What we know:
Elements: E1 2-3, H1 9-32, H2 38-51, E2 54-56, H3 60-67, H4 74-90, E3 96-97, E4 99-102, H5 104-108, H6 113-133, H7 138-141, E5 145-151, H8 160-174, E6 189-193, H9 205-219, E7 224-226, H10 239-254, H11 269-291, H12 295-300, H13 303-320, H14 347-362, H15 366-381, H16 387-395, H17 400-411
Parallel strand pairs: 1-2, 2-3, 4-5, 5-6, 6-7
Amino acid sequence: MSLTINGNYWGILAMFLQTAIRQQNRLFIEQNGKEPNEQEMADIKARALSSVRGTCQSDQLKEQQAQSTLIINLNNSLRMMSDVAEYFVENDIRRFNTVSISGYHIDEAGSNAITQAALTLSNGLTYLEIFKERGLDPDEFLVNFSWFFSNGMSPSYAVIGRVCRRIWAIAMRDVYGLEADSKSSRLRYHIQGSGRSLHAQDITYNDYRSLLQAMYALADNANSLHTNSRDEALSLPTNESSRLALRTQQIITYESGLVDYPDPLGGSYAIETLTDSIEAEANAIINEVENKGGAIAAIESGWTQNEIARSASEYQSSIEKKDKIIVGVNEFKTDEDDVNKTLSINEKAVALQLKRLQDFKSSRNNELVGEKLKTLHKTAKGTSNLIPAIIECVRSRCTLGEISDQLRDVFGEYQSNF
């Protein structure tokens, strides 16, 4: 299960974990014909949490840098990330990733491959330090780190994974003293084709862009891949375009034979030269961030956001000046009008969901809901880990909005300072 949620991810994560526990509890009742006692319930919870698999994006630094979709201020958002990491260590949750450290959104906001790699690694190192300050052992929590990159239309994206893996492994060995071949030193990453490389003009061409980006990912030995749909520059993808994107991956996997050769271009002059040069440039940016006081200080000063905005401006200018050719956009254009089917939102489904929410609230114990929300509010004012209190809210059928409102009330509503 992959949960692409950030601003209020802790509520969704709590719901997911509680669902796993509830499912195991139901299975116990079916198999034993009775409710579990206290010790049996503790065993059920431990077994469910140690078995659950998935990823929650939950990257708060990236949200501030590239999206501005936090719901509370950055410092308390980072506290919540530490609470999750601590809860995972204490409950032996090893198969679920606490964070997907994301360069994708940084790239989508306008950066290039080098800046994406550098800022993402800088964010990862910041999380490492924050979790260490909580008293957690890197060997205990780094196994729950995963990474997420964007794959654009440039050969530099064909080495972004190997560059980041090399820089991360060296840092883990030389700075933190971790074993080079340990799970803590590995950088496991998912990569997705660049959304901003897709264009509304002649959307069929986007299929070829997605295919080329998939081949870059294959050359870079990515752990997993998402190919975009042709119509994502217009709307959410239709079923037909989503199916085509999926079939693209399946043809690569089952028909090309290339997946039988990990790192197929390793050792080639082009790949090795690109890797060395981009590694050097990325390290220079990481050092610049450190000289500015680290990732958080660079964000608070506006330096990071300005770097992304500058890169975006340069990219757009290169298109307008035709220094960079985009087929069908600024060159090789057709005069025909595109007629494309786009996805429409089912308004009946929206109304049905609102009705379900209304029924949900009316059928629960609202006195208990109020008590659990008050406990969460009180806990947020202190220094205790918030995740157990949030899970208790979920067990009592509090909604995500109600949980988030308590945190906003204590920490204040997020306001972008960019």
